[in-house]
C-alpha cells in the first residue's frame, strides 16, 4: 500500500475512458502512488483487466435513480464513495474525472494540505442550483421549498468548485462523511444543476482551498487548444467539459493523443515507474499557469452573464415582482446569453392568468 491513491469513476459505458486516464497518468505523470477505479455497475469480466494490472477496484452501488430532467448520469453520485472509511488506508486521495487527459506530473497536487479543487469558472453556489428543469408552471412549491432550505443554511454567493479534480487528506473522512453526502443529495435533489457538484460543495462549504487552474484546465476553445499544441503552454490536467467536447469524439484535436494513451494502456506495468519525458522549470510552469487563466477568462465572464436567469428565479420565488420584471426586461434588451433566452418562457408565464398558462405551456412545449 502506498501513501497516495489516484482515483477515477466509470460505468460500463466508460471503461475505455478509465483505461485512457490511468494510462495518461502512468506514461505522462510518472505517478508513483496507487491507482483505483470506482466501478459503477461494471460486470466482473470487465473489471478483470484492471485487477490484473494491479489497479484497485471499489465497486459502487447506485445512490439514486435517473430522472427525465437530469442532464448528468446518476453515475456521478458515486464520487461520494471516496469519503468512505475504506479510503483511509491512504493518506491522500486525488480524484480525476474520466474525461481527463493527464499530460504532466501531478506531484504538486500531493503537496496540498487541505481539501483542494479549482473554482468552477469563478462562479458562486447559485451556479450549482437549477430552478428551471421540468417543473409545472403553475406549481413550483417544491422548488421554492428546496431553495428556502438551502438559503437558510448557506450563503449562495460563496465561490463554488468544480468536482472534476479533487485532492484531500483522508484525515477529513469521518464515520458520518458518506451519510452526510447522501443526505445532502436527498435534501437538494430537486435543484441540482451539475450532478454531484452541489452536494460536494455543501459538504465542503467554506472548507476548501484552490489548486492551480492548470491542474484542471478546460480546453474549450481554439485559443486554448492552440496554446497547448503550438505555444507549449503546460496544462498538466486537461478536463473536457460538456457533452460535445470529449477527446474521444470524432473531430477532436485531442483524439490522436487520447487514442495513443488508450493503446498504451496494455503496456502499463505499475511495478515500474516511468520517468518524466521532460522536466519543466518552476519558471516555465508559472508562465503556463498564467496563460491558462488568461485563456479561460472569456468563459469566466460569460458564465457570470449566464447566472442572470438564476437571479430572476430568486426574485420570483421571493415574490419581489417589481425587481423581477425590471430584470426580465433588462435581460431581453441586453440579450445576455443563449441560455438566458432558453428560460424566458417560464418567466413570461408569471404575467399570464392561471387560466391561460396551460395554453402557453403547450405553445412553448414546456
Notes on the protein architecture:
This protein has 13 helices and nine strands. Helix content is 39%, strand content 14%. The strands form two sheets. The protein has a seven-stranded mixed β-sheet, sandwiched between helices. Strands 5-9 form a two-stranded antiparallel ribbon. By secondary structure, the chain is of the alpha/beta class. It folds into two domains: 4-304, Spore Coat Polysaccharide Biosynthesis Protein SpsA, Chain A (Alpha-Beta Complex); 307-363, no CATH class. It is globular. The protein has helices spanning 15-29, 44-53, 141-153, 177-187, 197-203, 222-229, 255-263, 282-306, 308-317, 321-334, 338-342, 344-348, 354-363, and strands spanning 4-11, 34-40, 56-60, 92-96, 100-102, 116-124, 159-169, 209-210, 237-239. Strand 2, helix 2 and strand 3 form a beta-alpha-beta unit.
Structural class of the helix and strand makeup? Answer: alpha/beta
**Major pleated sheet:** 7 strands, mixed
Shape-level CATH architecture of the largest domain: Alpha-Beta Complex
- Large-scale geometry: globular
CATH class descriptor name of the largest domain: Alpha Beta
Number of strands: 9
Helix content: 25-40%
Straight-line N-to-C gap: 53 Å
The CATH H-level superfamily of the largest domain is Spore Coat Polysaccharide Biosynthesis Protein SpsA, Chain A
Q: Report the mean per-residue pLDDT as an integer.
A: 85
Number of domains: 2
CATH topology of the largest domain: Spore Coat Polysaccharide Biosynthesis Protein SpsA, Chain A
Biggest sheet, strands in spatial order?
Answer: 3-2-1-4-7-6-8
Indicate the radius of gyration in whole angstroms: 22 Å
List the total number of helices. Answer: 13
Amino acid at each position: 500500500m502506498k501513501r497516495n491513491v489516484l482515483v477515477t469513476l466509470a460505468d460500463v459505458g466508460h471503461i475505455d475512458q478509465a483505461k485512457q486516464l490511468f494510462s495518461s497518468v502512468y506514461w505522462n505523470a510518472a505517478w508513483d502512488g496507487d491507482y483505483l477505479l470506482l466501478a459503477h455497475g461494471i460486470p466482473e469480466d470487465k473489471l478483470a483487466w484492471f485487477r490484473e494490472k494491479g489497479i484497485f477496484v471499489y465497486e459502487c452501488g447506485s445512490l439514486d435513480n435517473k430522472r427525465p430532467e437530469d442532464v448528468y448520469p446518476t453515475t456521478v453520485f458515486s464520487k461520494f464513495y471516496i469519503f468512505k472509511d475504506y479510503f483511509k488506508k491512504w493518506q491522500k486521495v486525488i480524484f480525476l474525472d474520466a474525461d481527463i487527459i493527464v499530460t504532466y506530473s501531478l506531484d504538486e497536487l500531493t503537496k496540498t494540505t487541505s481539501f483542494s479543487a479549482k473554482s468552477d469558472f469563478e462562479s458562486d453556489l447559485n451556479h450549482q442550483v437549477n430552478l428551471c428543469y421540468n417543473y409545472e408552471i403553475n406549481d413550483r412549491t417544491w422548488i421554492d421549498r428546496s431553495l428556502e432550505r438551502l438559503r437558510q443554511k448557506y450563503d449562495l454567493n460563496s465561490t463554488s468548485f468544480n468536482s472534476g479534480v479533487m485532492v484531500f487528506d483522508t484525515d477529513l473522512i469521518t464515520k458520518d462523511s458518506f451519510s452526510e453526502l447522501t443526505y445532502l443529495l436527498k435534501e437538494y435533489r430537486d435543484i441540482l444543476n451539475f450532478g454531484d457538484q452541489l452536494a460536494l460543495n455543501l459538504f465542503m462549504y467554506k472548507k476548501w482551498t484552490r489548486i492551480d487552474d492548470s491542474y484542471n484546465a478546460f480546453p474549450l476553445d481554439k485559443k486554448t487548444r492552440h496554446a497547448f499544441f503550438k505555444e507549449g503552454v503546460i496544462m498538466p490536467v486537461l478536463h473536457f467539459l460538456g457533452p460535445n467536447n470529449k477527446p474521444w469524439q470524432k473531430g477532436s484535436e485531442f483524439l490522436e493523443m487520447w487514442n495513443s494513451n488508450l493503446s498504451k494502456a496494455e503496456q502499463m506495468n505499475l511495478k515500474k515507474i516511468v520517468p518524466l519525458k521532460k522536466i519543466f522549470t518552476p519558471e516555465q510552469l508559472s508562465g503556463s499557469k498564467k496563460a491558462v487563466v488568461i485563456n479561460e477568462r472569456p468563459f469566466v465572464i460569460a458564465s457570470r452573464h449566464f447566472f442572470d436567469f438564476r437571479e430572476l428565479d430568486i426574485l420570483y420565488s421571493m415574490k419581489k415582482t417589481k425587481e423581477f420584471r425590471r430584470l426580465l426586461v433588462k435581460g431581453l434588451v441586453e440579450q445576455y446569453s443563449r441560455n438566458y433566452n432558453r428560460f424566458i418562457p417560464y418567466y413570461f408565464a408569471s404575467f399570464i392568468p392561471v387560466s391561460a398558462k396551460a395554453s402557453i405551456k403547450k405553445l412553448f412545449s414546456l
